[in-house]
């Protein structure tokens, strides 16, 4: 048995453990036999209600009872009784799609769920024959269909990872604030005061503090310097003329302050990016991935989230006391909370939650299988309906893969085309990664793909499962009528022959 996510890997196994516990309760108490008793009583009462012209009541009820018992016996054997032993070590986390798309994912044993897996060691779940086959077949079909979909760039997932990366070092956050005040604001003011108009390329380039235009154009970052001494750069009399040598370091130019290896702001900010996120961005082979990540990490929005809302304008103003100070802190907390809510893209979070919901639903369906079959009196219609429901649940990742691929194509068409035409950033998808709002049209399309696709799929499969289940029940009932009709016709033939023989006997006398 396989699983497509680590949570599904755990919850499906846990569901079968509880399924076995439920069936043990029903079988040990004898409750699983009650449906057979009630079904037999129903057949007997229905036979008694039929008229005398239907024939002998015993001949009518016997094949019906036999058919009911045979069908229920088969359902109990193949759909209720645990047969195939499965433990947590024999279950397999299917990473074929990850390997196909060069995505590195930790194994369940190396993930944060290792403590949960340890609790399951030594425990064995037994799966009924029918549901074991349904699971294997459903997963096989799903994986085969997913393998036929081209690998997407996972652009939206990449943005989700980048936007949830924050600068945790408060010293670095404050230094970025100082850089913005000492370098970026002065360079930006000079740019506006010395030019009558700006090209789209220039406007897009100077939209952040690490602008290539300011770094590579004379008179900007090569001229302006830090207003405070920086210990990482020694004092230079030529460069730092006019500044006092306080012994606390020199006054690097803005270009040095940003670009110098290891001690520059650029390398230090990139070092704060999680290794996993950095590796995923490199694997996407996206041009300018460093600038793409830096634009978000040093943005005022992210620095506000990283620094507790105290950067850029507030500084160290949290020293107020009394009622005014408390009100100020409360207002800041509310504002920060609203910013965090705004900075969390709703549909990106939805994509993370959907596989969790799928795994929980699979576990729920697996747990209640014995109860549903007992309450339905082991009707074949119920088996078909549950089978279609399980297949529909297992097949959902296929629709999400299609939605992800289409989403990547739409984003490439929207942002990639705009960037290539010069109306966007020179770095592909930089505007998208730095945005927390895609517009209501993009959100509507994304919602349709990720939510409406599975909902429509469930609706179609539900209708089909019910119809096929009803058809199976009708076929079983019609199959039961055949021996009844044969028995009735046989009894009538015997009766007619006996009547003819009696009539002939009277004639001979």
Automatic annotation (TrEMBL):
The chain crosses the membrane at residues 7-23, 356-375, 382-400, 440-466. Keywords: Membrane, Transmembrane, Transmembrane helix. Residues 483-509 are annotated as: Disordered. Residues 498-509 have a biased composition (Low complexity). It holds the Pfam family TraG_N. Residues 8-478 form the TraG N-terminal Proteobacteria domain. The keyword Endoplasmic reticulum does not apply. This is Conjugal transfer protein TraG. It comes from Salmonella enterica subsp. enterica serovar Weltevreden.
């Amino acid at each position: 048995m396989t699983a497509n996510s680590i949570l599904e890997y755990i919850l499906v196994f846990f569901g079968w453990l509880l399924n076995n516990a439920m069936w043990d309760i029903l079988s040990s108490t004898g409750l699983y036999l009650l449906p057979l008793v009630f079904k037999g009583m129903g057949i007997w009462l229905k036979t008694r209600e039929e008229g005398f012209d239907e024939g002998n009541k015993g001949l009518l009820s016997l094949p019906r009872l036999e058919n009911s018992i045979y069908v229920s016996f088969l359902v109990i054997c193949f759909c209720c009784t645990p047969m195939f032993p499965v433990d947590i070590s024999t279950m397999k986390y299917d990473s074929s799609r990850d390997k196909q798309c060069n995505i590195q994912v930790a194994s369940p044993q190396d993930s944060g769920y290792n403590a949960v897996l340890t609790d399951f060691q030594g425990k064995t779940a037994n799966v009924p024959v029918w549901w074991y086959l349904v699971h294997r077949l459903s997963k096989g079909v799903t994986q085969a269909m997913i393998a036929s979909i081209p690998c997407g760039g996972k652009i939206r997932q990449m943005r989700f990872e980048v936007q949830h990366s924050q600068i945790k070092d408060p010293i670095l956050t404050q230094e970025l604030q100082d850089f913005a005040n000492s370098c970026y604001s002065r360079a930006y003011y000079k740019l506006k005061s010395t030019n009558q108009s700006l090209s789209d390329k220039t406007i897009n380039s100077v939209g952040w503090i690490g602008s290539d235009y300011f770094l590579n154009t004379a008179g900007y970052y090569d001229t302006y310097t830090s207003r405070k001494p920086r210990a990482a750069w020694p004092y230079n009399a030529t460069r730092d003329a006019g500044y006092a040598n306080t012994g606390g370091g020199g006054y690097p130019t803005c270009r040095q302050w940003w670009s110098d290896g290891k001690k520059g702001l650029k390398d230090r900010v990139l070092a704060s990016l999680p290794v996993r996120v950095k590796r995923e961005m490199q694997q996407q082979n996206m041009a300018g991935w460093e600038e793409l990540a830096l634009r978000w990490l040093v943005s005022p929005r992210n620095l506000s989230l990283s620094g507790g809302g105290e950067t850029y304008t507030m500084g160290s103003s949290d020293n107020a006391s009394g009622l005014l100070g408390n009100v100020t802190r409360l207002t800041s907390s509310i504002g920060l909370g609203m910013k965090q809510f705004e900075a969390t893209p709703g549909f990106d979070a939805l994509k993370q939650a959907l596989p969790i919901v799928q795994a929980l639903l699979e576990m729920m369906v697996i747990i209640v299988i014995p109860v549903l079959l007992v309450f339905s009196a082991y009707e074949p219609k119920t088996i078909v309906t549950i089978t279609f429901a399980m297949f529909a649940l297992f097949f959902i990742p296929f629709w999400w893969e299609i939605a992800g691929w289409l989403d990547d194509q739409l984003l490439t068409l929207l942002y990639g085309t705009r960037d290539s035409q010069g109306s966007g950033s020179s770095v592909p998808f930089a505007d998208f990664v730095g945005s927390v709002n895609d517009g209501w049209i993009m959100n509507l399309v994304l919602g349709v793909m990720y939510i409406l696709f599975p909902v429509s799929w469930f609706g179609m499969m539900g209708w089909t499962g019910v119809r096929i289940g009803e058809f199976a029940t009708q076929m079983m009932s019609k199959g039961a009528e055949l021996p009844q009709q044969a028995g009735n016709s046989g009894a009538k033939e015997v009766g007619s022959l006996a009547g003819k023989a009696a009539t002939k006997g009277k004639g001979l006398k």
